[in-house]
Amino acid sequence: MDLPLFKKNEFYPMIWGIRETEIPMGMRSVGTGNVYYVDYDHNLANDDNTGVDPDNPLKTIQAAVDKVDDYDFIVVRSIDSSGEQVVTSGDADHVTLIGCGDSRYTPTWTADTGEYCLVLNNDGWKVSGFRFLVPAPSIALAGGIGVVVTGDMNVITGNYFDGGTVGAEGIYTSGSDTWVMDNFFSLFHSTAGSVAINASTDGTKLFVINNVFMDNDNHIVSLKPESFITGNTIQQVGYAYTATVSLDTSDATNSIVSRNVFGGDYSIAGGFEGDATDMWVGNISDDIAETEVADNGFTVAIPAA
Amino acid sequence: MFGIVSHGAYDVWIIDNVFEGLQDGQGTATAIYTGTTPLAIPYRNHIIGNIFFNNDNNIDFQCNGSRIMQNIVQATSVDVTATVNVRTTLPGNPGDDNIVSDNIFEGDYSNTGGYIAGTHDMWVGNICSDTAETEVGDNGFSVAIPAA
User: Fold this and answer.
1) β-strand B13-15 against B46-48: which pairing, if any?
2) Using a CB-CB distance cutoff of 8 angstroms, which residues of chain B are in contact with residue A295?
3) Residue A239 and residue B43: Cβ atoms within 8 Å?
4) C-beta separation of A30 from A43 below 8 A
5) pTM (2 decimals)?
6) Is B10 in the A-facing interface, judged by CB distances under 8 Å?
């Protein structure tokens, strides 16, 4: 008698430093996913290595980016302190790029003046754990951006975006469905007026969730319709800089702005501006003098003039 | 007796700790403290997700451009009632422009109660038990820095 053939799903043990493997039972649920290691300071680091052995790592992130396929991982222990500009290309989507230095938000990732640290042209990448020390723009006020997103469904989470008093933009996205979660943005300042998150009219949906913004020229400018801004803490008057724009969704439609904490003047003059089709309910604001803020601090309407 | 003393270092992260039982019999023990003669006032420090209870003083931390978020601060504990719960500024060592938000504060939400802010600090969205204060909404959320 022929018995049915049973085959159990394969399981994969968790790997230290690979956050996606930290699931119940300590196992990964997907069989795909090579892990590439980048460690610039390692004595044996070389871009001619395969990169899958942490004792013989790659020297640059770009070398790893050029090797990956769908659902692969890149673990970065150290980066050239003078910086590296990395551009994704090819067909590899849903790659996880993890900063895995010796302490919180390490390694630090910077680039030359007028350049970008990382350009995400592919879809579904996840970037976490880095401190982006964002460079200054060029004389023509171009560049100087931490992460540029042109692909869709990319996730930028758990990073420290440090403008260092010169950085032009923390994140610029022209892609759809960009998720910006659990990051810290500070000290974005330049003569042209820097901005922590700048979302263009290309594509739809920007998700900005649980971030903290302080001491920037401008915090969030979103031109994408149907965006979702929630759980963020936004400081209007910083120690070094007072924000001109705290949150502006006025040139797009149907965004949800809720459960954020807003400091300062909750009005258009104060740098908070929405579209008439937006929902700005349930934020907490200290500007209870405004009609749009209830006595208990909850916003009940989009900001007015 | 102090849990952590700062002499002005920048970019310090104090996260997910428990500060308990800091008492010296003089009422001067403090969980997190900025010395009166720091090298420089701390900037961009991050005090996040900590728990403070049964201490003479909790967060007595004069700082600029820093954030104190998601902490739980108990004012009246089993042995002592804290004198300073959260203080970010002093006349001789003024701190300012900090974010103090998303914390849970017990007790009198006022300067008298040990909550003392820099003039331009942002103290919005903390959950306070002291809903009698003008600076706290009837839902318990703080909407302004503590007053006298």
Assistant:
1) parallel
2) 137-138
3) yes
4) no
5) 0.90
6) no
